[in-house]
Amino acid sequence: MAVEKMSMVNLVADLALLDDVLKEIALFERIQLVNAYHEIEESNFRLSMVDENRDEILNMCRIEPYKTQVDPKALMEKAEKLLMMLDLEKKIDSAYLEDPVWDWTLERVETQIDLFTDEVSGAYSVLSALREERVHLKELECLGKLQETEVDLEEITTMEHFSARLGVLSKENRYKLSLNYENITAVVMHLDTIDRGEAELIISPKELDAETDRILRSVYFEEIPIPDAYKVKAPEALRRIRVRQDEIEVEMAAKLRELEVFKRSYQNQIQASINALALERVKVKMRRSIATTRNFFYLAGWIPERDEADFEERVKILGPGTIVLFNDTSNAIEKHTPPTLLKNRWLVRPFEMLVNMYGTPAYNETDPTVFFGLTYMTLFGAMFGDLGQGIVLFLAGMVLTRKNPENLYFHILARLGISSAFFGFFYDSFFGYEHLISKLFPFMPFLRPIENINTILGVSVGVGVFLLIISFAYSILNKLRIGDVKEGWLGRNGVAGLILYLTLIQAVLNVAFDLPGLPTLMTVVLVMASVGAIIGREPLANLLKGARPLYHEKVSEYYVESGFDILETFLSFLSNSISFIRVGAFALNHVGLFVAFHTMGALIGNLGGEILMFFLGNLIVIFLEGLIVMIQGLRLMYYELFSKYYSGDGEAFDPVRFQEV
Hints:
24 helices
């Protein structure tokens, strides 16, 4: 609905309370810190001149940036390795930090992590070795292909004049090697297909080892070593492999039980340690914005106005003498531009993402999300109106949202589906079939695009004109809000531009459709006055404000540039208005595609063909045309509307967030 009102918070407290205050800010997740040292240096840090603030004010003359501590990144990596060894997922949750009996000092956490790691690493190392051996034995199973020959593996691996290599090649490289068999003085025997690729046994003369190795390296041959225990006849080797595999499974199960016992006993403490380290990493980042003296620390940041009381209550109870002051933006904005935090209701909230793709609204700019969301849904529904397909899009959006609620695209998809279904009902279109809905609701007024081509195209342009007028209103409001007289009153997207646009629209309606309008003389006067205001907006604005000089460049250069600008204004009025005809064109195209698929189904001449064309047509239209209509809707919003009133040069509100660690 609007941009949240922000305040600048200034906080001073005893240096002993620094960690507690930073913890509260991190868990509060509603404050964007700014550099307090720079604030004090630039005299933006405000403290009330009262007796109880005397020490804090006097200490400000000895202020200095906080000397940050070492980032516990290495310790966090060690803790994450511990999670990996125990097959635990990292859980960042402030609830772990609320245990009153836990000592959250960094030294205590490090001791705990080292202790846990020492206890786990032995069992995990054995388990890792067993897993590697299991994989190796799985690959050695390919030797079973030699059972019928009863080859003695020790004999072939210790031959005097020949070398034997067991290894693996990818399918592509095995094919490349096969193309060069005539150039290889070796026997290449394919044994089996394993997980890594194709197992090969290669035997070559030792005197040609260098040449063979070169060829094998070129095809990325990876040798599989054969341990001495398995260098026996092939059947016996396979038997030993099977026996050892069974032993490994038993040993692994024992180690997994050992690790599971440790996991159940200590996982809460490990997760708590992870969260303590995560909090410490946030504190390290926050300390870069802190200023300190010998006794006090100073902190500054942006906070939503509605959170002031809650934050003050949280930090006041940490210790006596804590000073918290809030400065509204009328004071803070003199040196700062407040960050932007949007506040919208559930229906249009997902469209904030599309607005931010163009740019974040400035703090003193009207939030366009409501207008954007409602307009985008309307344009999409008008271009892609079908009750059945709209329901499909809605259900798809809801299912995907349930699986991944953080993805705003899925939320948008569900809303677009509702709009498509709504327009499809009045278009009398259900999965491309017309005259079905009207049979159930004969009393409803329906507007079938293919039967009302001129009406659809005319309404599309009319809707575009209406939206452009709203865009003018947004532009005027934004410009006047920041005191921009030149563009707000006299600019091409200001009051003068709106008067010019409305005058031209009524003149076109009067001439083309013989509708009542303004007298010709008044129309000419309004057009000339508006054009004159737009051309001379800079000297006129300076004259109204009493600013001198009236021109900031050569007069001739200014009027040449303004002449081209007014020509561009007329062209943009025309192109912006006509551009919305695409809404009607896509509505007609939507129907036309289904006519084509119905015709192809009829040409096939049987029920199966018609069913095939029904499903194929709907799939193509939903996925392909649906995507095109989404893009065209965005184009209309960005280029025809946003370009008139939206700057999007704000800074997004970026508070300290413990959950993002």
